[in-house]
Design a protein that fits this description.
Layout lengths: L3 E10 L10 E10 L3 E10 L3 E2 L21 E4 L1 E7 L5 E7 L14 H7 L3 E7 L7 E8 L4 E7 L3 E6 L22 E5 L14 E2 L5 E11 L3
Antiparallel strand pairs: 1-2, 2-3, 3-14, 4-13, 5-9, 6-7, 6-8, 8-11, 9-10, 10-14, 11-12
């Protein structure tokens, strides 16, 4: 594609590595376009039935890491989340977000919510989209700079993650140190623990099938 920078990473996960059956051949293509998009295309095949649930765990901070992400405005295209047990494992039941601290059906900031919750977000959202369709999953705005991140995916769910712990163990560009609430993640994937939850979409990959996933992170400004 013209005006697009591309890099392809390939990996073979040998049979029973990590306990997973099958020789899994995986490629992830990263594309940077002149439309300010970072596009991730995943492709995988296996020679034995296995389970596969891939995602990207990049942290974002639209202040340029000058400030925490508490002032960001978040909107998530989802009406329900996967409920979890005391250990954070999904129960297999979806619950409505309406009227809760997980409701981002309209744009919301999170500072007050985080103070009331006394914990971060690590929540799997069921996206409002057709299975397999590439659709908008979330929009995040930093109101001071006017920076906007729009995230699209073909996956059925998105893990919204903002850790409560201090992030000073991470070093960034220019040896930058990060503090508490200095990053958020929009992780496109299937629901966690899907192999053990029959109500969730399957994550089984069979020989002869091809796993495909596309995620797009598109950067804009409020003036666009």
């Amino acid at each position: 594609m013209k005006d697009t920078a591309v890099v392809v990473f390939k990996y073979r996960s040998a049979h029973l590595k990590g306990g997973f059956p099958g020789n899994l051949d995986l490629s992830v293509t990263y594309k940077l376009t002149n439309q300010n998009e970072v596009i991730l295309d995943y492709v995988a095949t296996t020679d034995r039935p296995t389970v596969l649930n891939l995602t990207n765990h990049s942290y974002f901070n639209l202040t340029g890491c000058k400030m925490p992400v508490l002032n960001h405005i978040y909107a998530i295209e989802a009406d329900s989340i996967a409920s979890t047990d005391a250990e954070g494992i999904p129960t297999g039941i979806l619950v409505s977000v309406k009227g809760t601290e997980f409701d981002f059906t309209s744009p919301q900031t999170i500072e007050e919510r985080m103070r009331m919750m006394k914990k971060g977000y690590d929540t799997s959202y069921k996206l409002n989209k057709r299975p397999g369709a590439l659709a908008l999953a979330a929009t995040v705005i930093e109101p001071v700079s006017g920076r906007v991140l729009k995230a699209y995916t073909t996956e059925p769910a998105m893990q919204f993650y903002i850790p409560n712990s201090n992030m000073d163990y991470l070093k960034g560009h220019g040896n930058k140190e990060y503090g508490r609430y200095y990053g958020f993640c929009l992780e496109m994937q299937h629901f966690p623990d899907s192999p053990n939850k029959p109500r969730f979409p399957t994550t089984v990959l069979l020989p002869g099938e091809t796993y495909r996933q596309t995620t797009i992170y598109k950067f804009e400004t409020l003036s666009e």
